[in-house]
């Protein structure tokens, strides 16, 4: 039993060979998480859709506490496993997916326009982060066995992000107000700025602003031949375009829905 735990946590390094990115094991594991994520979001979202706002928000509160608890546990364990008390500087919530570690608590516990914008931000990026952090996480599944501490915790936290995004829409908590769009963009740009600064200071790759590292960002990296100025600018531009398209599609669908209701 002790050896199984040592192998799961990777104490002293893994003896198992990684099954590989896009292997059957990888796809089965992340697909199972996605099925559970969608099922939970649909069930709770439909159940709470006509309940009061406090009841709806209780689910978001629990999701926020869970995602941060798992992440704190992961950071503490990574420091212990690697016998490095400074390991946490490489585990900061400065990836696109891990922004939810801060945005989701904001959505749960803040009020007013900040709450509305945070709920919108989670709903816009939560599902994208869930997919990118599971199916597209080439750097993880190429390096570690599928059923390893890092991949399991990462899969859980990304699934919580996706769950929260779907639940917010299904339960009717998303406001998607135009007046809150600047706040939504500001949340993203603030994190991008913090991530880029951290990358410079500790020579890391938060938000994949320095290189693709086996993710779909490699397409952009190769397109600009790894230019250290153009590459991060293109990545941030993609984020901005994604938000704009998301809002555009939402407003278009909402407008068509209203027209049908008025007929």
Helix tally equals: 10
Percentage of helical residues? 55-70%
Rg from alpha-carbon coordinates: 19 Å
- SSE string: HHHHHHHHHH
Oligomeric form of this entry?
A: single chain
**Overall pLDDT level:** 91
Low-pLDDT windows of residues:
none
SS-based class: mainly alpha
Strand content: under 5%
From the spread of the alpha carbons, the general shape counts as globular
N-end to C-end Cα span? 65 Å
Largest sheet: none
- The tally of strands reads 0
Provide an overview of this structure.
By secondary structure, the protein is mainly α. The protein is built from ten helices and no strands. The protein has helices at residues 2-9, 24-48, 53-81, 100-109, 112-132, 138-141, 149-170, 181-202, 217-223, 230-262.
Give the gist of this structure:
The protein is mostly helical.
Summary keywords:
mainly alpha; 263 residues
Secondary structure layout:
Layout: H1 2-9, H2 24-48, H3 53-81, H4 100-109, H5 112-132, H6 138-141, H7 149-170, H8 181-202, H9 217-223, H10 230-262
């Amino acid at each position: 039993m002790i050896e199984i735990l040592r192998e799961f946590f990777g104490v002293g390094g893994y003896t198992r060979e990684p099954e590989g990115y896009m292997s059957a094991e990888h796809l089965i594991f992340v697909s199972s998480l996605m099925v559970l994520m969608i099922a939970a979001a649909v069930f709770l979202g439909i159940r709470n859709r006509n309940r009061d706002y406090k009841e709806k928000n209780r689910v978001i509160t629990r999701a926020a506490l869970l995602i941060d608890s798992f992440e704190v546990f992961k950071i503490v364990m990574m420091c212990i496993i690697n016998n490095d008390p400074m390991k946490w500087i490489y585990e900061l919530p400065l990836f696109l997916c891990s922004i939810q570690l801060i945005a989701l608590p904001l959505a749960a516990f803040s009020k007013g326009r900040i709450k509305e914008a945070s709920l919108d931000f989670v709903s816009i990026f939560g599902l994208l982060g869930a997919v990118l952090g599971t199916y597209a996480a080439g750097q993880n599944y190429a390096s570690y066995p599928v059923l390893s501490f890092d991949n399991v915790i990462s899969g859980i936290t990304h699934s919580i992000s996706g769950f929260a995004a779907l639940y917010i829409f299904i339960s009717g908590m998303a406001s998607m107000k135009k007046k809150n769009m600047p706040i939504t963009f500001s949340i993203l740009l603030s994190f991008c700025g913090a991530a880029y600064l951290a990358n410079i200071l500790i020579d890391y790759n938060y938000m994949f602003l320095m290189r693709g590292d086996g993710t779909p960002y490699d397409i952009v990296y190769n397109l600009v031949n790894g230019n250290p100025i153009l590459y991060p600018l293109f990545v941030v531009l993609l984020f901005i375009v994604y938000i704009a398209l998301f809002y555009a599609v939402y407003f278009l669908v909402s407008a068509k829905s209203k027209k049908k209701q008025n007929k």
